[in-house]
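User: I'm curious whether this sequence folds into something compact or stays loose and floppy. Could you predict its structure so I can see for myself?
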Amino acid sequence: MAAQRESCCPSLPRTMRAARSRTSGAYLFVVLLMLHLTQELEPPTNPERFISGKAGLGEVVGVSYGHGSPTRCENARSMPDISPLARFENCHSGERIVLVCNGPSLNEMDLSPLRYETVFGLNKIHLGLRRFGFYPRYLAAVNDKVIAQEAPALRKMTAIKFITDRCRQLLPQDAFTFHINTTRIPEPFCHDIARSVREGHTVTFVALQIARYMGAAEVVIVGLDHRYTQSGAPNAPLRMEGPDPNHFSPDYFGGKEWDAPNLAQSEASYRCAREAYEREGRRIIDVTRGGACTIFEKARYEDIFGK
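Assistant: Here's the prediction. I'll summarize afterward.
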């Protein structure tokens, strides 16, 4: 995972759940039917057709990926005085979220069972979706170089995207894109993403904070290899010459600029995440095949997903 820069908003009211108009039911049924028929491994060529004309600050209308029906975090309307991020609070309360990182071990696994899970992808996961056999419901990206390199591809994705507000001009907020404040965050682990999210030198940590805000009881991590065969000083700007050996695709950073990982600080962030989860009776389980990270509880991928 590319290293993240350590980059506070005032407190905002807790989310208010607005009642949905009865007259919208038939329209939403049509929307959901269209999504079911068209949304498999690729996003629609024109995602705007699934956006309500009254969506305002990024209202989402029933995008469904993985198992189950659309959750209220995708259906709720935002109120003028409430952060658009507040709709995600506890929207997956008590559920499992699968966090897919970008390590090369993904190439050794059958990831097709994840099409039935609520999947949170990271950074350039779109480079492998045709091959992996699933489409993420959510995606996080906070590294400036990643976003600059992949802005057109990220813009086309119909996953719900959480993007650092530093890159708001590259990826403006819309029905599928939400900006998170990641600049100079004092809290070691942020519990309210409507205020702020700490980068912690790894986008994986960002996703763990968002998943906790969504109310996930369990986060299963896949593809957290946590090792780099080509690297430099922590956080140093580098250019990858030749194919990228550190990620699931040789094109990930191949021939491109990237930031060297800071594994020590990433591990400190992971410890913080594990402590925050376990204080609330939640779990983080790492099922990466051959992963080098020793911070999280370990399990076999096959024992959880049956493959």
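Summary: Helices lie at 25-38, 72-75, 129-132, 144-156, 203-213, 263-279, 301-305. The chain has one domain: 22-305.
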